[in-house]
Amino acid sequence: MAKQQNQFLKVGTLVISLFVLGACSSTSEMEEESSSTEAAASTNSGSSSGAGNNNQLTQEQIRAQNALRQTVFYFDFDVAEFKPADRETLTYHARDLAANSSKRIRLEGHADERGTREYNLALGERRANGILNYFIVNGAARSQIEVVSYGEERPEQSGQSEQAYGRNRRVEVVAQ
Q1: Burial of 169 (0-12, 13-18, 19+ CB in 10 A)
Q2: Are 152 and 123 in contact (CB under 8 A)?
Q3: In angstroms, what is the C-alpha Rg of the chain?
Q4: Residue 107 confidence (pLDDT)
Q5: Parallel, antiparallel, or unpaired: how do β-strands 105-110 and 72-74 relate?
Q6: pTM of this prediction?
């Protein structure tokens, strides 16, 4: 938890620093940029390239922060492959691990209560290993990641509805 807070503090400081650096320019440079921006706007409807690059970098950092906040990934019934919609978020997690070699995580695989205990333990492990392999392919080191399966033993939501089953089919990324 403290490592995550420290990381968010570092990223937040970087974002603020980039914003302040972008805002620090002399008045004459700003006037020149303003007149050239107005000229560019009259010839085409695009935005100025300087502002777009700074904003895009900041937006990318915000996307990365938001992606790293998502730590639970849900699975379809009897499926061990993560959903294509989670690919981008998982890529941010892998890049974060690759950039922070001292960071360690645990991937906790889970299943709903349907199926035998043994089958659900194996399914939870296959789900966690699928994410592990994706992280490794995208730059994370195997030594940074522990895999554990709880099968059906630690449900997120109790009950026998499809909603409860869906919440229990998951892999959680836990910082260590």
Answers
A1: buried
A2: no
A3: 22
A4: 98
A5: unpaired
A6: 0.68
